[in-house]
Amino acid sequence: MKHVKSITVENLTKIFGNFTAVDNISFDVEQGEIFGFLGANGAGKTTAMKMLCGLLMPTSGTARIAGFDIYKESEKIKRNIGYMSQRFSLYEDLSIIENIDFYAGIYGLEKKEIRNRTNEMLEKLNMKSIKNEMLSSLPLGWKQKLAFSTAIIHKPEIVFLDEPTGGVDPITRRGFWELIYEYAYSGMTIFVTTHYMDEAEYCNRISMMTEGRIAALGTPAKLKSDYNAIDMNEVFIKIAEVKRK
Amino acid sequence: MKKFRVFVWKEFIHIWRDKRTLTILLSMPAILIILFGFAITNEINDAPIGIYDKSKDELTSKITSNIINSGYFKLEEIIKSDDEIIDVFKKGRIKMIIIYESDFESNLTKFNTANIQIISDATDPNVANTLVNYAKSLVNNFIMIEYNISPNFKIDVKMRYNTEMKGSFLFVPGLITILMMLIGAMMTALSLTREHEFGSMEYLLTSPLNSYMIIFAKLIPYLLIALFDIIVILILGTVVFGVIIQGSLLLLMFECLLFIIMSLSLGLLISTVSKSQQVALMISLMGLMLPTILLSDFIFPVSNMPQWLQFITNFIPARWFNTIIKSVMLKGAGIGNIINETLYICGFIVLFLGLSIFNFKERLD
Amino acid sequence: MRNLFIILKKEFTQIFRDKVMSRMIIMMPIVQLLLLAHAATFDIKNISLLIVDNDNSTFSSEFIAKFNGNNYFITHWNYGNQKLAESKLMEGSIDLYIEIPNGFEKNLLTSQESGVHVTVNAIDGAKAGLAMFYSNSVVNELINSFSRNKGYININQKFINIEYSHWFNPELNYTTFMVPGILVLLVSMIGLFLSSMNIVREKEIGTLEQLNVTPIKKSELLLGKLLPFWFIALFELGFGLILAKVFFDIPMEGSLWLLFAISAIYLTVILGIGLFISTITSTQQQAMLFTWFFSVIFILLSGLFTAIENMPYWAQVLTEFNPVKYYMQSTRMIMLKGSAYDDISVFIYKLTAFSIVINSLAILLYRKR
């Protein structure tokens, strides 16, 4: 199978005033890959992701998402990506089905198509019987699965997840990652930021960010052997120590 | 107690960070008092009028210039025909038209009487009424002086408590009430509802601090801002507008403090019944703002209202506060004179706090 | 177009889902109109008057009877107890007292100089002024007819007869003036507060960011968010006009279409201001405060209850930038005077200009984020 690049980033930089949030980063992500973006809070993960989604204009550098240029073709990019942020993004005062209808409608899906996909999705999530419930009555873990499924209702090529599992218990997190795997297997590229080091193990490749730069990039196994560590947590600590020296 | 201090400090930092909000909250009293004090006035000056002089003699031009020189009126339009009158009014600028009959002066000489007709734009009835009366008395005075007629009957009028009839005596207490409604009730209601809406209230309530202490801590910064605003209003009112505080300053501040506490309790109560900030806003804004302004004796005297509405004003705390503050500031009343009103305010505090605690418990269960 | 429809559907669902909210949006302004129109009155009735009679003569009882028969006054009297009058004035149970001096009738009959003393509680300057005016005119009338009956008026005295008529509101009904004003106020506040809170609300809960990564156009999003409030405000206006007719018998002299046309334009200004506030704030509390601040200033400088012509020059200049003023004036002119398009065209141009400026500014700021 031919490897297709979903994301290519070259020398991407974002400066706020005199603070450099993202400092000249470059990397590629291949189609169907689960690419993890790791780092401490404030390392520049969210800023980088926002630039890739077209929410923020970069200061300099180039990037192509799903083959489209982030400067000139941001509208086309928006049609081909899904996005789920660390803050919960569905409406609490709408029902499950109303939320799905709304987002599917925005992506311009046909009525029949919306119905098919909604059915398929509710079945998968086991929420068919409660589709008219208000979102506010659901437990957090369910909401998050629903938010993820809604973010990809238009079957985008790439989905960006910004700390998707913040504040969720380990079992729910595990269930959430199973869902991610399922979609990655079907060819969707997953770009995920997290600061849970154990989640890094679920990714195909990861990049470690510190102070706006990519400090290390590779498969979890490679990083562990490079830094002679037993788990990703140790890798992270060692990178931080190197930095300090 | 130390934990409590830490918590209060956190709330302060919260408000301090938000410079724009703070700026508005602190500068509001100054801006509003200047607007009220200088711009909002019922005194007539330079009201635009039209003159329709069918006679055009020496006497009519004398009367006209006498009217214009009074400072109350400004001649904006010379009207030349009957048809013009309605058009001029429909354009909206002209408030009143004075019409002299033809042969005005000769009629007065021949028959000792002459006619003037005044037409007013009474869409604003008070302005119309006042303008007509001013014009009437200007004309009468002019004639009396011109023909040396002096009455031997005098009405001697004393304006008690507010000799110069300044508006500031009204708007200082009025402003205090509406600002307290804003800061006390609305701001606190929204700030507390926000915590509920984002679920952070439950989180706070599980902390080792007593839940009443937490709410109390959230109210303290608003209490201080409110107090600051009242002091600014009082200082500006005294220094710029010459309001003299007749009664005891201590009593005045005590009553103000009581009213702030009442507003804060009201804000708390609103937050316990609102699911979202939008609902809290609708209740405090639509439900409180206009009724507070209109039913509290601030602009419109309660005694003019229909009986059933006067009864309703009993449930508006600001109405009692308005009476208190006017009595203390302007009449020099002591606590004895206003004990009833003070008890009403205390009653509201107890009622609002009681209901809040009841709702709050229900919500957490 | 389809996207716009989807957003509209969602917005309306959200507004009407919340029963408390939707009921308040519809009911509050109506209740307030009905309630407050009665409150907002400067018609001075029921002036509480005490007459202190030190003369106790035939004429002084005639004097008291004259006031007793007057609709404006609730009259009490006593003989010679000025102290009591003073303390009643202090506690606020009377608005003014008139003191008839000893020898009042005798002095009048012998043409000596005489008079009465009027003491008014002047804390409320406007009310005091009117109370004084009414009482003085009753007194003057009484003295004149007394003098004329006794033949003291000189037949040869020059006299100017002044007749007056109040147009557009001949009975000087204050409600007729205030109801259109309050209606304007309620429509403005509904539009302004709902729109300024709405977008900032999505910002606060984080859904706005989600919408920004969807292919939805900004123009569609903003239009979809503002249109519902435009409709709601116009609906309130229509409902309010019906109530004004039914309950207060407020005339509609001019064209209803003209009123709705100018309202439609005016509301774009108001929603633009709401959008502007939304873009420069990050929490609903902030938005509420900003909106409150602006609306209080707008209301004070709108001529709702104090005529703009009476304001000092600098304040009049400020009112030139107040859209509420133009709308307030045109509404009253259309409803009460039957002013036509030509009479208010200047207001329409100005409102249109405001709308363009504030909306462009808001959209520019919104784009910049």
Q: Write down the overall mean pLDDT of chain B.
A: 83
CATH architecture of chain A: 3-Layer(aba) Sandwich
Number of domains of chain A: 1
**Outline of chain B:** elongated
CATH class of chain A: Alpha Beta
Mean pLDDT of chain A: 85
Give the oligomeric state of the chains in this entry, treating copies of one chain as homo and distinct chains as hetero.
heterotrimer
Nearest-angstrom radius of gyration of chain B? 28 Å
Give the biggest beta sheet of chain B: 4 strands, mixed
SS-based class of chain B: alpha/beta
Instruction: Give the overall form of chain A.
Output: globular
CATH homologous group name of chain A: P-loop containing nucleotide triphosphate hydrolases
Q: What is the element string of chain A, with H for helices and E for strands?
A: EEEHEEHEHHHEHEHEEHH
**Biggest interface, and residues per chain?**
B-C, 110 and 109 residues
Structural class of chain A: alpha/beta
Physical arrangement of strands within the biggest beta sheet of chain A: 6-7-8-3-9-10
Spans of chain A with pLDDT under 50 lasting ≥5 residues?
none
Biggest β-sheet strands, sense, barrel of chain A: 6 strands, mixed
Percent helix of chain A? 25-40%
Hey, roughly how much beta strand do the residues of chain B contain?
5-15%
Which strand order spans the largest sheet of chain B, edge to edge or round the barrel? 2-1-3-4
Strand and helix layout:
The complex is a heterotrimer of chains A (245), B (365) and C (369).
Chain A: E1 5-16, E2 19-30, E3 34-39, H1 45-53, E4 60-65, E5 68-69, H2 74-80, E6 81-84, H3 96-106, H4 111-125, H5 140-151, E7 158-162, H6 170-185, E8 189-194, H7 197-200, E9 205-210, E10 213-218, H8 220-226, H9 232-244
Parallel strand pairs in A: 3-8, 3-9, 6-7, 7-8
Antiparallel strand pairs in A: 1-2, 1-4, 4-5, 9-10
Chain B: H1 2-17, H2 19-39, E1 47-53, H3 58-69, E2 73-78, H4 82-91, E3 96-100, H5 104-111, E4 113-121, H6 125-146, E5 153-160, H7 168-197, H8 200-205, H9 211-239, H10 249-273, H11 277-294, H12 307-313, H13 317-331, H14 339-364
Parallel strand pairs in B: 1-2, 1-3
Antiparallel strand pairs in B: 3-4
Chain C: H1 2-17, H2 19-39, E1 47-53, H3 58-68, E2 73-79, H4 82-91, E3 96-100, H5 104-109, E4 114-121, H6 125-149, E5 159-167, H7 174-205, H8 207-212, H9 218-248, H10 256-280, H11 284-300, H12 313-319, H13 323-337, H14 341-368
Parallel strand pairs in C: 1-2, 1-3
Antiparallel strand pairs in C: 3-4
Helix pairs in contact in C: 1-9, 2-7, 2-9, 7-9, 7-10, 7-11, 7-13, 9-10, 10-13, 10-14, 13-14
